[in-house]
Structures are given as C-alpha cells and as structure tokens.
Amino acid sequence: MTTPHNAAKPGDIAKTVLMPGDPLRAKFVAETYLTDVKCYNEVRGMYGFTGLYQGKPVSVQGHGMGMPSIGIYTYELYNMYDVDNIIRIGSAGAIREDVKIMDLVFGMGACTDSNYAYQYGMPGTYAPIATYELLEKAVEIAKEKGQKYFVGNILSADIFYNELGKPTAWKEMGVLAVEMEAAALYLNAAKAKKNALCMLTISDELHSGEELPAHDRQVSFTQMMEIALELAISL
Questions:
Q1: CA angle 162, 185, 2 (to 5 degrees)
Q2: From CA 4, how far away is CA 7, in angstroms rounded?
C-alpha cells in the first residue's frame, strides 16, 4: 500500500531503515554506500532508497524536522510497511561541555518538552528509551572502529529558536545534546513493539558557539553512517 507521504509498494522497503532528517543525506548514503539502489519515494521531496550493503538489503529515508514529521514517517514505516528497526542518523547540538564537534552520541533516553506522548493517555510521564539490543551493538561497533562516543540522555526539543535561550536546566541534569526527533521515534517504536535507536553526530556546540556549515552536516558524518550501516546488517 501507499500512503499520502510514501509511494513505496509492499516489499520496496527493507526491515531496517536508516533515517536522517535531511533527505539529501539519505541520497548521499544511498549513492555512497549502497549497490543496486532503487528510489521508492520522492513524495514531498522526502527521498527513500533501498539497496544492498555488503549484500544485505538496507533502506535509507529522510524524516524531516521535528517530532510531527518523524512521527508521521516512522509510524507509517512501522505500522504500514512492517519495518522492524529504525536507526536515526542525525545531527545535534552539544549541551555538555565535554561533548565536542563531530563526537558521536547514542541516545539511551530522550528527554523532551513535547506533548507527543499525550495521545497514549498514560497516567504519568513516560520515559522514551532506545532498544537496548541496538544500542549495545552500536557501542560495540563504535569501539571496534576506535570512534569517540557518548551514551546517555539527549533532549528532543520542540523549539529550535527558543526565546528562553540555552538549555541550562537540562545541562544541570547531565543531558548530552539537543535534537528534535528521538522522543517521537522511541514512542512510536514502543507502541508498535518495534526497535529504534538514535545516533547523533555533534554539528554545533551550544556552550562555545562553534558550528559546522550546512554542507558538512549533509555529507561529513561518514563515521556515524558506517556504524549505522554495520549495525543494520547485523540485525
């Protein structure tokens, strides 16, 4: 079946999907790493591709910016296309001062200021977390590659240009970095009883003001991409 947001037909999408926010990063991953590539989606410019990595099928698709956007795409992948594993490969802003540009962060948990979980009618605050098996394997691969990484809480924020300024209170609670999607991904995975992991490369430092240009965010996160691809074919 197709949806209003995805033109893929049954069988077009692999069981594991890598998802960057930027659809051009999805295109870069497909063109750089995959063979026998087929583009299964161009609706709204949100490119989706399936190809082979070391002989195994892997898909990569953009998810856009913010929790409403990733919420739509991952809901459809889990529930309408029978995807089992989604690995977000995104960028983030470092909150903690020891987290630097190009460092890798694995989101073990995703704090949030979003109301996304309201829909589930829970009588308390749900803590969105990664699937442990994916997290454990990703850490093992990062260690093998000698990649610097952090594991811990990240912040999934609803606001990019925040009038309240820097997320000082989150820093005091040890939150590593801020992005805008992981909490919705983890909530959708939990509800669908599927698997999810958010992997992030630091593109800017809130504590220093240093940042990467847009083109570098699109094509320079190759260490994260390679770890994600190796994780994908191990599942």
A1: 115
A2: 8
> Where are any strands of DSSP class E within the chain?
16-19, 35-41, 48-53, 56-61, 85-94, 104-112, 149-156, 177-179, 195-205
C-beta separation of 180 from 110 below 8 A? no
Q: What mean pLDDT do residues 144-152 have?
A: 96
On the CB side of 64, CA atoms within 13 Å amount to: 16
Distance between CA atoms of residues 131 and 182, nearest Å: 12
Determine the pLDDT at residue 219: 65
Query: What's the count of helices (H) and strands (E) in the chain, helices before strands?
Result: 7, 9
Q: Could you say which DSSP state residue 9 is in?
A: P
Cα dist. 5→1, 40, 85, 96, 162 in Å?
A: 11, 12, 19, 36, 29
Question: Looking at this protein, which amino acid is placed at residue 105?
Answer: V
Enumerate the active-site residues.
Answer: 204
Does the pTM surpass 0.90? The reply is: yes
Would the pLDDT of 164 be above 90?
no
**Assigned token pair, 177:** 């970095």
CA atoms of 198 and 109, how far apart (whole Å):
9
- Residues 154, 88: Cα–Cα separation, whole Å: 13
At CA 137, angle to CA 131 and CA 143, rounded to 5? 135
CA angle (158 as vertex; 87, 102 as ends), nearest 5:
50
